[in-house]
Amino acid sequence: MPSIPSPLPYKPKRTRIDIFSAVLRAAKEFGGSKIAIVDGDERELSYKEIIRAAFALGSALKKQTKRGEAVGIMLPTGAGAVIAFLSVLAAGRIPAMLNFTAGAANLKSAMKAAEVSKVLTAHRFVELGNLEPLMDELSDAAELVYLEDVREKLSLSDKLAGALGPMFPRMFYSSPDYRKTGVILFTSGTEGEPKGVVLSHQNIIANVEQVRAHIGLNTETDSVFNPLPTFHCFGLTVGALLPIIAGVKAVFHPTPLQPREIAKRIHTSGATILLATDTFISQYARAGAEGDMDTIRLAVCGAERVRDETRQLVRRKFDIEILEGYGATEASPVVAANSPAMNKPGTVGTLMSDMDYELAPVEGIAEGGRLRIRGPNVMLGYMRPDNPGVLEPTENGWHDTGDIVAVDEDGCIWIRGRVKRFAKIGGEMVSLAVVENCASAIWPDDMHAAAAIPDPRKGEQIILLTTAKGADRGAISAWSQSHGVSELSVPRKVYHVEEIPVLGTGKIDYGAVNKLVQEYAEA
Predict the structure, then answer these.
(1) In the CATH scheme, what is the homologous superfamily, with its name and number, of domain 19-407?
(2) Tell me: the pLDDT tens digits for 316-336?
(3) Which of 16, 46, 106, 490 sits 20 to 30 Å CA-CA off 417?
(4) Which uninterrupted H or E stretch holds 56?
(5) What's the whole-model pTM score?
């Protein structure tokens, strides 16, 4: 494995700029002929090719949409998604990134919240993903615009915009106010209907610059391997926009669910930075042959806690150290991260620059509190399905993350769990994450998910679902006693399941887990 250098001295660029202008700035800085993207089929695209396509498609979209309108994008990670995203911006419209794994009901709710009436997608994507039934359900809520059809019908003026746009961008593009909406993403919907998260251009650019300064990038030697979906803020901001804006080649893979193929592509591409979640990187490490991931110098993981077992596996097999981070869509998304200079396992590192935080007390929690954050990367506000298109602004720029955390003497953040992922047993607060951690320590090769249900005597009881065959309560109780873990963290019952429900982002789908647990309890 290449040695991990200290973060390079880096002076952040100005963030009072819109996203598309930041891409134009990067093309000028690094050269239009520099390769910016390697697609899933190994096709390479330069800055000039990306910008040319964005101007041509953007010109066509102007005729089908209104200025300032939210346009849905439903595409897998790759050049098509990036070009569609930039073309919507080039047209003066707002990209709304739609999660095609969320199901028709959640998608319709998200589209209603952001008033999306047109959705960009691709015939090839629909066919490969067998998404025809989904598209049929969505067709009554929005007009589906297929990129192949738009490309075939480009007019002479569209082609001229594509040809001349990279050379004379200001002839075809008028920069919007950087403080206005740059993109709309959506919450997962596991805690109710999906909400639209409204991020300004400055929110995104600020987070790009925060992360860029935090981890250190080398524009000559680094390349980012990104298999994460662009409908997820981590995959969009860190996986797609940061590399392009920072002059670092982005290698895209259309799905994170192909561990063998991904391990091989990491090897052939020579990528040096891998973006993943705990679930996905453990799969890649197991599937990869010796040497497949040797070029990786940084593995940056977010979206879920990185288990000790995963760290050990990746370190043992490929000598890679994982940098764990923490984020929220509402923060564009990176809130905190470990860095090469200070990587403190068990924590999610320190806050990004220019961010403030406060910890609100939580009954039953002695150490730490409920994290509230404020900073240049924190959203403008929400849009909800019951009030379509109307921005619900933050309270003086503050966002309540709903997570209980503690901050140590180094400024590193320890995540204790979400407020909604604590059980109250006999008057004490018990973290469901601790229950899962105990199970992971005993059965490291399996997945585990805990949920709480009402208990007539003690308030609540904890139920554990696990893919570990033969798992039982006794093993967890014995492990807890020998490791000083409270008996309250031992689940009342343990059920074996074939698989734990997972969202398209790689996180455990706790909405589905709660339903499963309820079904077991009733049975």
Answers:
(1) ANL, N-terminal domain (3.40.50.12780)
(2) 889 888 999 999 999 999 999
(3) 106
(4) helix 47-62
(5) 0.85
